[in-house]
Amino acid sequence: MEATIVLLGPPGSGKGTQAQRLRDQLGFAALATGDLLREARDAGTDLGRRAAECMDRGDLVPDDLIVAMIHESIASHDDEPILLDGFPRTVTQADVLVGVLEAHARELTAVVLLDVPDDVVAERISGRRDGRGDDRPETVRRRLDVYHRETEPLVVYYSARGLLRRVDGAHDTDAVQARIRAALAGASPAR
Ligand code: ADP
């Protein structure tokens, strides 16, 4: 069975950067719900229009929209190891993921938590200059609140299922990458 890894962590924890590296180095298909939503918004699809308002506020997009999107995305990578970046973000999504993976004859291999404190996140995002509309300081605060309230319960959820690998994400990109690879040793697609 191909590996299925979830990357969990607050906004600005470096999930996107690390996901790209894991894709390039280990051959994962990296599925980033934030990127998929931004593409949908830029393409002006129905999904994109419905998602845009929530994203601009720093709120989560409704579960039903996300679930349909991730279903499709996982279906198009059936024979590859998958890395999920930005999904699940709620306990409801995590519950749904179990069934989605089952439907594709997969199961979760591991969940990597990129642990980065709020002050480091705020500093990193304020230094980021890629012009994302949701990177304004008040929106970043909102995204962090939403993370703690809606997404952080997944840490306990996945710990209880023996899947969580906690990685200290407050280091430079190379050091964090090495920690992730160590955390995934034995759970990598090369196994
Ligand atoms: P970050 O992790 O830095 O906040 P993302 O690119 O992962 O950035 O997500 C940007 C926005 O996209 C989120 O603030 C949210 O509005 C929306 N989004 C992404 N993934 C999900 C998800 N799984 N459920 C609900 N909303 C999501």
Question: Would you kindly provide a written description of the structure presented here, covering whatever features stand out?
Answer:
The protein has 191 residues and is an alpha/beta fold. The protein contains nine helices and five strands, in the order E-H-E-H-H-H-E-H-E-H-H-H-E-H. The protein has a five-stranded parallel beta sheet with strand order 2-3-1-4-5, with helices on both faces. Helix 2 (33-43) packs across helix 3 (46-57) and helix 6 (118-126) packs antiparallel against helix 7 (137-151). The longest helix is centred in the C-terminal third of the chain and has 15 residues, at 137-151. It is globular, with a radius of gyration of 16 Å.
Number of strands: 5
Order of helices and strands: EHEHHHEHEHHHEH
Widest sheet: strand ordering? 2-3-1-4-5
What's the total helix number? 9
Q: Which segments are poorly predicted (pLDDT under 50) over 5 or more consecutive residues? A: none
Query: Which ions and ligands are bound to the chains?
Result: adenosine-5'-diphosphate
Q: Termini distance?
A: 10 Å
Largest sheet: 5 strands, parallel
Q: Fraction of residues in helices?
A: 40-55%
Overall shape? globular
Q: How confident overall, as mean pLDDT?
A: 92
- How much of the sequence is in beta strands? 5-15%
What is the structural class?
Answer: alpha/beta
Rg on CA atoms, Å: 16 Å
